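input
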Amino acid sequence: MDEHLLNRPAEIASVLSSLERHRSPLSLHFATSGQDHASLVLAVDREKEEFYLDLPSLLAGQKAAESGERFTVRAVDQGVSIFFSGCQVKEVVELADGPVYVAAFPQQLIHNQKRDAFRVRIPLSYEIKADLLAYERKAPLMAQLVDLSHTGCQLLFSYLVAPPFQKREVFEELTLDLQAFEKKVTVAVEARHARYDDKKQRTLCGFRFIHVDGSTQAEIDRFVIFLQREQRRLGL
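output
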């Protein structure tokens, strides 16, 4: 496993949103009670940098939360372990379904990801287009898919990307046009390693998929297998 320390609000928001989307169980721990309390992320507010929590399962946890005691959170989302600490309930909000707790984003979050799998190169004849969108950037980035694996991909940009990619910069939407399957898939990614070729005026960057839902992962894996078969058929 590769351990990453995330400290940018956009990165943390993406992880929390995935926990919400998959309804991944949380384990909240308060020092005074010495117990773990089950909860869920109910909503994420990117602008306010807050997230909403379901009430802890035990009364002791509810009392600790409402008294402002800090707590740690552990979770597993799609096989990836997540940990953060120093959280504190800011307020209790009454909704139609009952009260929920509001907490500020943690200052940092530990995110353990699986190592990269085998990558298969994309034949030039396929010319698979990729659209990359980050909410913090002004405009989407257009690229071409160079290689693909179960866990990530590499993109070629026919220009120098500006501003440059930040390591582990989060892009909420990467859309790949899989023409062989007559469909498109969209997934969140984080930038890994970028190379800038000033002479050829182009950028090459690797990306890791994050928070992939089951159906999208199945489509990616299906396309990787298809490409591997094509390579064997062509003797590549």
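quick obs: The chain has a mean pLDDT of 85.
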